[in-house]
Amino acid sequence: MAGRILILNGPNLNMMGTREPEIYGTETLADVEKRCRTLLDGTGFELDFKQSNHEGELVDWIQQAIEAHQAIIINPAAYSHSSIAILDALKMFSGPVLEVHISNIHHREAFRHKSLVTARANGVIVGFGMQGYELAVQRVLRLLG
Ligand code: DQA
Questions:
Q1: pTM for the predicted model, two decimal places
Q2: How many Cβ atoms sit within 10 Å of the Cβ of residue 26?
Q3: Tens of pLDDT along 51-97?
Q4: Are 69 and 101 in contact (CB under 8 A)?
């Protein structure tokens, strides 16, 4: 086994499919998880795919990833714009960290333009819809390969 990749999703992303479909589309997080798993088939990497509406739970999972995972892909959702705790937790993780935003946050309200998490991200994928997660998985495979 080559290792483990963690995909983390922040608040309200469990509602994908019905949440503001004009912005986020109609695919669900389960659809995305399935496609990411397919991409990892045969690579030797295992995937843990999680979502939480709670900042502390996301911090706990990032701390656990320090020992358990080789890379983190994270869409911190609204916490992107406010959470120093998530940034600090990611700073303790030594592997690649890729940040994903489904929408183009730079075309939206001014308060979404800045993500605190970007200070730790090795790369950011913005505005590619749910496909952004697959692009992030491909990038992680390149970085770890
Ligand atoms: C988001 C953008 C955030 O501003 C928003 O709070 C989200 C989703 C995105 O993926 O486009 O919940 O991270």
A1: 0.97
A2: 12
A3: 999 999 999 999 999 999 999 999 999 999 999 999 999 999 999 99
A4: no
In 3D space, the residue among 58, 64, 55, 68 whose CA is nearest the CA of residue 5 turns out to be 68
Ligand 1 atom nearest to CA at 12 = 12
Q: How far is the CA of 44 from the centre of ligand 1 (A)?
A: 30
Number of domains comprising the chain: 1
Range of the domain at 105: 3-144
Q: Whose CA is nearest to atom 12 of ligand 1?
A: 77
101 flagged as catalytic = yes
User: Residue 145 Cα, ligand 1 centroid: separation in angstroms?
Assistant: 29
Question: Residue with structure tokens 């080559």?
Answer: 2
